[in-house]
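Catalogue entry: protein

Sequence with per-residue tokens
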Amino acid sequence: MTQRIEDYALIGDLQTAALVGRNGSIDWLCLPRFDSAACFAALLGNEHNGHWRIAPTGAGDCTRRGYLGDSLVLESVWETRTGTVKVTDFMPQRDVAPDVVRIVEGVSGTVEMSATLRLRFDFGSVVPWMRREEGHRLAVAGPDAVWLRSEPQVKTWGQHYSTCSSFTVGEGEKVAFVLTWHPSHEPRPPLVDPYESLTHSLEDWEKWAARCRYEGPHRDAVVRSLITLKALTYAPTGGIVAAPTTSLPEEIGGVRNWDYRYCWLRDSTLVLGALVSAGYLEEAAAWRDWLLRAVAGDPADLQIMYGLAGERRLPESELPWLSGYAGSTPVRSGNSAVDQLQLDVYGEVIDSLHVARTAGLPAKAHAWSLQLSLLGFLESKWREPDEGLWEVRGPRRHFVHSKVMAWVAADRAVRTLEDDPTLSGDANRWRAMRDEVHREVCEKGYDPERNTFTQSYGSAELDAATLLIARSGFLPPDDPRVIGTVDAVRAELGHDGLMRRYSTTGSVVDGLPGSEGTFLVCSFWLADALHMTGRTLEAKELFERLLALRNDVGLLAEEYDPVARRLVGNYPQAFSHIGLVGTALTLSGTHTAG
């Protein structure tokens, strides 16, 4: 049976990540980076597309599991007829090469264990040549080489193009497996000690988590979401991927399956605000610096997303040999939305750099010049239609959120010049732009009969992104148009109390067939908007409900299907966890940015 999305837990080494099922199988892992081809792709196909399972012989899902303290070290426990065993899974932060460590330990009685390693490089399509070398197993295919070793050694054999083993553990006995990748043309990297690596990993994560300065009633949830965001960070550059997966469907069996293993500019302001408010200035500075490097160049060439190091070419292709998660096809690698025009990203970049400046992050000499360049381009382009925040693949429109973010760009420039008159720039010019955008949005993007801002000019459709109007400062929270928008969006886009991004029923806005689940970050935005408009009790009730949607290890996907009552979309989703942290900080009064 296909594991549900919420049946997976995350482990990672701050350069890539793996998904471990409740059944003890690692069904997704890209090596050596988040955006590399997967060597375990059973998540998007079946076991023949690559996986690594360690579990008691004949057992199903584990009895219980959880992360050890405030770490990314996962412990899964099986209680069997003959005894109890636990498997500890983690990826130590790498010195040279990526390692996956799996430690099997007998807790009581005696338990027979089975292990099956089925490596399939290039997203499950390439079967490597496996041989014994230096007493260990070595798999090679093209540019990829993977070593498997165990301490102590257990007997392994080849079967159906996989490596199998069977062994028994009694109380207090341990067997550690280490899987190590390296380029096949290079020598084998140094061996890591699995037990020392475990100790260091726990110490590193606990030390990092202790830096969180949020002390509110939901500290455990906030810390777990911050750990997840840290796990989605590509440490060499500071970039944060939207999710470590591709093509997990927004509708089971549907076609809304996208590759999220890249860094989106749309996330930048919210990421920075959450990191700064939670006390993670080092990570906020690294993300700010990634942002500055990625967007450098001609402002006309600004993209909505980039690769982990700021790469610009992310060509989209389909992987037809993969049957898709629960039959959801196509499976995609790359994302052609990179070529879209989304004018809101100019506002998001400028707002992010404003947040960084006001938070006291070390200044970058060229940051202000870059902002002026982006703003100058936006000044000439903001009147044009675009694809909007949600990357619709239908016709371009005058999306209200895009216009509001153009206002944000001008507003932040004015505020920066007011705070520091020594900076170059024409404050009067940006005030004039700010005022013009504001007038147009209020005239063309607002429906006075329904008392709500709409998704785009002249449209009857609504958009959850308009919930951010007060948060952006475009209008005060007590403005009747803000309150009306919150009420209208909640009524029309709500589904069982949760928020959809926009309506897909009978709509041609996104140019795609089918539907999708409720969008979790939009539901967090609703909680924020309820709080800002004086309905804090309702906001807290919604926040508690959203917390209850997390799986047993505290993770959220992009969306939630309230009919099937399951998580859908790419997983775990940075945007959802940013929303959780932001709402917790907002409700506690400690959100200092944005």
Observations:
- The first strand starts at residue 8 and ends at 12.
- Residues 92 and 200 are 8 Å apart (CA to CA).
- The radius of gyration is 25 Å.
